[in-house]
Amino acid sequence: MSQRTNALAGEVSPYLLQHAHNPVDWMPWGEAVWKKAKRDNKPVFLSIGYSTCHWCHVMERESFESEAVAEVLNRDFVPVKVDREERPDVDRVYMTAVQAMTGQGGWPLSIWVTPEGKPFYGGTYFPPTGGHGRPGFLDALRQISAAWRDRNEEVVGWADELAERIRQLGEGSGGDPIGDTEKILAAGTDQLAEEYDRKHGGFGGAPKFPRPSQPLFLLRRSWVEKDEKLLEMVRHTGRAMRLGGIYDQIGHGFHRYAVDGGWAVPHFEKMLYDNGQLMGLYAELGAATGEEWPWEVVAGIDRYLWRDMRIEGGGLASAEDADSEGVEGKFYVWTEKEIRDSANEEEFRLAEEIWGVTEQGNFMDPHHPVPGWNVLAQKRAPSRAEQRLLEGIRLEGIRGKLEKKRAGRIRPGRDDKVLTSWNALAISGYAKAARWGGGRAYAAHAEEVWGFLERNLLREDGTPTHRWRNGKKDDAHLLEDYAGVLQALLDLHQATLQASYLHRAVKLAGKMLECFEDPKGGGLWSSADRSLLARMKDDYDGAEPSGNAVAALALLELGHLTDQPQWIEAAKRILDWLGERMTRLPQAVPHALLALQRFSESPARLVLAGEEVEKMQDVSAKVYRPDLLITRATEDHPSDFVRGLASRARETTAYLCEGRSCQLPIQGEAELVEKIRRG
Questions:
Q1: In a domain, 250, yes or no
Q2: Which of 392, 408, 424 is the last residue of a domain?
Q3: Do residues 206 and 258 touch, judged by C-beta distance below 8 A?
Q4: What is the DSSP letter of 10?
C-alpha cells in the first residue's frame, strides 16, 4: 500500500518534506492558502519551524502524526507549514505577533490567523494534553474553532488591532541622528561588561548562546581602549566555550547553545551560522592574544565544516539535528563503559580527570531517560607540560579512538539546503581566518564556497537568491542575503587582494539600497515581498546579526576601501535609524555597535603595491589592528586614489593611509610591523 502524502510532498525544504506524510492536510505557504481559507471561511493554522528543531520533532510525534488531531485540524482549519530558514521574512512577521501576544517566542511557532493573514492567537510548542497551566493542543484547537464560529466579529476585531500593532513594530522606531558616538560605544561596552559572567564566561545566564557579535565587539573595544580587562573577558569566554560541552570535543564544531550557564550541556543542534561567525571570532582572538589555542578552534571548525557540512561543489549545508534515532544527543554522548572499552588505562584515567566522565553521567533526554550518559566537557585545560607530553599520545589518542567509534553510529539528520546568508557568514569566517594569519588554505575554502554561490544562487545581475537544494533555487529577495554577500565580498577582497570582489561589492551595494532602503522612515526592509501582512525592519543582533547592522558595517568598509563617499552616507542613514536602539538597549545590538565603532574610526588602510604583496600581507597579520582595512593597488581598483599608488611602486611597497593621506612608503617587513603597531 502506498504511503499517504499531503501537498508538502512536492516541496524542496527538508523540514516541509519531514511532514509530507502526516495525516494533517498541510499546504505550503502561497496564494492557494488564502484562496482556500477565504472560500471555506476557515482560519489558517500556521506552523513554523525548521528541520533540526528538537521541539518541532516532539510536536510532530505527539500531535501532527495523530489521526485525532488531524481530524480537527483538517475539518476546522487550513493547516500550513513554513520552514523559517527558507522564509525568514514570514517567520519574522508572525514571531513578532506571538511575542506581542505572549511576551516570548520560539519554535515550533504555532499561530492562528484569519483568511486575510491577520493573527489572533498563538504560542510555541503545545503539548498533546494540558497541564501545569498550559493548554493541550487538541483543547486549544477546539476552543479556537468555537471562538471563530461563535465570536467571529470579536476575533476579527482583535486580529485587525494586532495586525496594525505588528506593522508599527515592523517599521521600527527611527529617532534623531546619532550624536556622541563615543558615548554610545562606551555605554554599550559598559553594559556588556556588566552582563559578563565572571565565573563561566559569556553574557547572562542559562540558556547561554554564543552570540559572536557580543565578544567580537568587546574584543575590538579592548584594542581601542587598550583595556586588558575587556580582552580577558573575551579570552575567558572563548576558552570556556572551547572547553565546554557546547564544543564537540570529539568531532569539533559548536552546538547551538548550552542549556546551563557553564557551557557544559548543549542543545545538540549544530548550525552553520554559529560556526561561520565563531571561526572569525577565534581568528581575531588568536591575532589579538598571540596564543595558539584559538587557532586550534579555528582549525577544528574548519575540519567539521569541510568534513560534515560540505555539499558537492563547495556549498555548505545549513544544520545538523539534535536528535538521532529519535533521541536528543544520542550521537554525541558516552557511557563510562564505552570509553573504558575504547581506551587503555592511562587514556581512561585522563578521560575521567579532564573530560569528567562518570558512571552516573551528566545528561539525560527527558523523553528517553537513559542513565549514565556523559556529555564530554573539559573540567580543566591540560597544562602546557601535559600538552607536550600527551599530544598525539594520550588525550589526542583517545579522542581519535572515540571519533572512529562514533563514526559507526547513526548520524543526526542533516539539513542539506544551502542558504546564501549563512554561507556568506562562513565565507567571512574563512576569509578572516586567512586575513589574520591562518594561512592561504582558509582563503581557498572561502573562495570555494563563494564559487558555489556564484554558480548556483546568484542571478545574472549579481543579486542573491536565498535557498538552493538539489539543483533548485528560489527567487526570494532578502536583506540578510544581500548584506551578508556584500560583507563576504569585502572579506574575500582583504583575504585575496583581488579587485574583482570589490567591483562586485560596488554593484551589489547599489542594488541592495535600491531594493530595501526606506527613504521615508529610515533603515532597510528585511524583505522585498510586499504581499506579507507587514514589511519588517530587523534591528536585533541575536544568534545571527541583523540585516541592517550587517549592511551598515559592510557599506562603511566599502566606502573606506573604494573612496566612494556615497556608501559612507548610506551607512550613516542606517546608523541614524539604529541610533535609538543603540542608545536605549545597546546589549541587543552588538553588531550595530561594531558598525558604529567603524564609523567613529579614522578610515585607516594598508595599501599594498607591487608583485610580492602576499609577504607583506602575512606580515601585517602579526599586529592586531582591527581598524585597519587591507587592499592592493592595481590598475583596475575602484578607487582612483589607489590606482594612482599602483603606478608609483617600483618594488613591493606598503602604504599606511588615512583616507587619501599616506605615510612614507614602506619596503621592509620589520618597518611595516613597527609602523602598523604605532598607527
A1: yes
A2: 408
A3: yes
A4: G
Return the bridge partners of 524, or none.
Answer: 517
List, in sequence order, every beta strand (DSSP E) within 234-331.
Answer: 257-258, 266-267, 270-271, 319-320, 323-324, 327-328
Q: For residue 57, what is its C-alpha cell?
A: 520533532
25, 79 Cβ separation under 8 angstroms: yes
Our measurement of the distance from residue 406's CA atom to the centroid of its chain's CA atoms, rounded to an integer in Å, reads 27
Residue 320 CA from chain centroid, whole number:
14
The pLDDT tens digits of the residues spanning 446-505 come to 999 999 999 999 999 999 999 999 999 999 999 999 999 999 999 999 999 999 999 999
**Residues 657 and 607: beta-carbon distance below 8 Å:** yes
Q: Which three cell numbers stand for residue 10?
A: 512536492
Asked whether residue 521 is domain-assigned, the answer is: yes
Residue 1 belongs to a domain: no
275 with 323, same domain: the answer is yes
Alpha-helix residue ranges (DSSP H) falling in 54-136: 54-59, 67-76, 88-102
* Measured distance CA(517)–CA(287) in Å, rounded: 36
Question: Residue 384 — pLDDT band, cuts 50, 70, 90?
Answer: low
* Interatomic CA distance for residues 90 and 86, integer angstroms: 9
Q: Residue 479 to residues 76, 206, 516, 556: CA-CA distances in angstroms? A: 36, 31, 7, 17
Same domain, 608 and 511: no
Helix (H) or strand (E) holding 468: strand 467-469
Rounded CA gap, 14 and 12, in Å? 6
Give a yes or no: residue 2 inside a domain.
no
The C-alpha atoms of residue 113 and residue 499 are separated, in whole angstroms, by 49
* 592 plus 608 within the same structural domain: no
pLDDT tens figures, 70-96 = 999 999 999 999 999 999 999 999 999
Both 315 and 448 in one domain: the answer is yes
Is this prediction's pTM over 0.70?
Answer: yes
User: Strand runs (DSSP E) across 487-618, as ranges?
Assistant: 604-609
- We report the CATH number of the domain holding residue 120 as 3.40.30.10
Residue 254 backbone dihedrals phi, psi, to 5 degrees:
-105, 140
User: Which of 575, 600, 625 is a domain's end point?
Assistant: 600
Q: Residues 461, 462, 464, 467: what is their CA dihedral angle, to the nearest 10 degrees? A: 90
Same domain, 119 and 229: no
Please classify residue 567 by burial: count the beta carbons closer than 10 Å to its beta carbon, then call 0-12 exposed, 13-18 middle and 19+ buried.
Answer: buried
- Find the CATH number of the domain harbouring 646: 3.40.30
- Phi/psi for 117 (5° steps) reads 85, 10
Which residue range is the domain that position 647 belongs to? 604-678
Same domain, 58 and 126: yes
Q: Are strands 44-49 and 109-113 parallel, antiparallel or unpaired?
A: antiparallel
What's the domain count of the chain?
Answer: 4
Task: Specify whether 158 is located in the same domain as 238.
Answer: no
